[in-house]
Amino acid sequence: MNQYLHQTTFVVLDIETTGASPKVGAGITEIGAVKVRGGEVIGIFESFINPGESIPTYITALTGITD
């Protein structure tokens, strides 16, 4: 099926974590999603998540998310 982007409904996801890799113990701190249809935002979701560990200072400086 061929569709132009402006004719498509899609979701853009953003995930913030406590570090670069889950292999070294990074946990998710926030999930955000935006649903787009026809070039217009039709839905927004965002939620903070307790990563089960302290958020490093450099991640707080980067994202503004704190313990």
Secondary-structure-derived class: mainly beta
Nearest-integer average pLDDT: 91
Radius of gyration, CA atoms, in whole angstroms: 16 Å
Number of strands: 3
Amino-to-carboxy terminus distance: 45 Å
Summarize the helix and strand pattern as letters. Answer: EEEH
CATH architecture: 2-Layer Sandwich
The geometry reads as elongated
Helix content: 10-25%
Q: If strands are numbered along the chain, what order do they take across the biggest sheet?
A: 1-2-3
What would you give as the CATH superfamily?
A: Ribonuclease H-like superfamily/Ribonuclease H
CATH class: Alpha Beta
> What are the segments in which pLDDT stays under 50 over at least 5 consecutive residues?
none
Number of helices: 1
Could you describe the largest sheet, including whether it forms a barrel? 3 strands, antiparallel
| Residue share in β-strands | 35-45%
CATH topology: Nucleotidyltransferase, domain 5
Oligomer: single chain
What's the number of structural domains? 1
Short description:
The mean pLDDT is 91.
Description:
By secondary structure, the chain is mostly beta strands. The chain has one domain: Ribonuclease H-like superfamily/Ribonuclease H (Nucleotidyltransferase, domain 5, 2-Layer Sandwich). It has one helix and three strands; from the N terminus they run βββα. Strands 1-2-3 form a three-stranded antiparallel beta sheet, with no helix packed on it. β2 and β3 form a beta hairpin. The longest helix is centred in the C-terminal third of the chain and has 7 residues, at 57-63. The protein is elongated and about 45 Å long.
